[in-house]
Amino acid sequence: MTNEKFTNIVIAIDGSDLSKKAADYAVSLAKQQNAKLLAVTVVKFHQTDAFRGSTSTLAKFIRKQAEIAENWTDLVRSKAEKSGVRFESRVIKTNASVPEEIIKYAKGKKSDLIVMGTRGRTGFKKALLGSVASAVVTHADCPVMVIR
Ligand SMILES: Nc1ncnc2c1ncn2[C@@H]1O[C@H](COP(=O)(O)OP(=O)(O)OP(=O)(O)O)[C@@H](O)[C@H]1O
Ligand SMILES: [Mg+2]
User: Fold this and answer.
1) Residues with CB under 6 A from ligand 1
2) CA 2 to ligand 2 center in whole angstroms
3) Ligand 1 centroid vs 23 CA: distance in angstroms?
4) Terminal-to-terminal C-alpha distance of the chain
5) Atom 19 in ligand 1: which residue has the minimum CA distance?
6) How many CB atoms lie within 10 A of CB 55?
7) Ligand 1: which of 14, 19, 40, 134 to mutate, most ligand atoms within 8 Å of CB?
8) Are 91 and 103 members of one domain?
9) Mean pLDDT of all residues in the chain?
10) Residue 125 DSSP class
11) What's the farthest any 2 CA atoms get from each other in the chain?
12) Cα 108 to averaged position of ligand 1 atoms, centre (Å)
């Protein structure tokens, strides 16, 4: 029998309503399990963005996105704090793959559960499972809980 208690729960946030709903589940699960909650948001930029404007435009764009992302994780932080759940958060800026960054972060934090939404902000409504959720479910080293 494996250890069925979760100790480090990662919540992946992209600002969508569904990821906020997933965060509520993650907070209450972390409380029940006396686990630590780790919120992660990946700010993805494309290398080609650099060619559209100047590098400082790109830097400004990334900074703005990271600021917005921090507001999302702050929202989860306040809910975690209210519930007495230990919390930390990270905003990752990358031009690489979003799911790969989530998986790498979870692995580095020795996470034993990743919580996320089935869909996010960027997809079409009719897709049942977004590409980030699908790739994380497929490739993560730990269990994944997808909230719908
Ligand atoms: N950049 C991100 N950083 C952190 N978590 C993310 C990010 N993007 C998506 N997620 C997580 O994955 C869940 C599913 O989102 P996903 O991106 O797979 O679907 P989508 O946006 O509807 O479709 P797609 O991105 O494939 O067009 C979100 O609810 C969120 O929990
Ligand atoms: Mg998406």
Assistant:
1) 12-14, 16, 18-19, 22, 40-42, 44, 98, 102, 116-117, 119-123, 127, 130-133
2) 32
3) 13
4) 29
5) 130
6) 10
7) 14
8) no
9) 93
10) T
11) 56
12) 20
Co-location of 103 and 142 in the same domain: yes
**Ligand 1 atom index nearest CA of 98:** 1
The domain tally of the chain equals 2
Q: What is the pLDDT of residue 52?
A: 65
Residue 26 lies in a domain: no
* The pLDDT of residue 53: 65
Domain residues for the domain of 73 are 40-95
Domain boundary among 51, 71, 95: 95
Specify whether 45 is located in the same domain as 91.
yes
Count other Cβ atoms within 10 Å, centred on residue 106.
24
Q: What's the CATH number where 127 sits?
A: 3.40.50.620
Enter the DSSP assignment of 109.
Answer: T
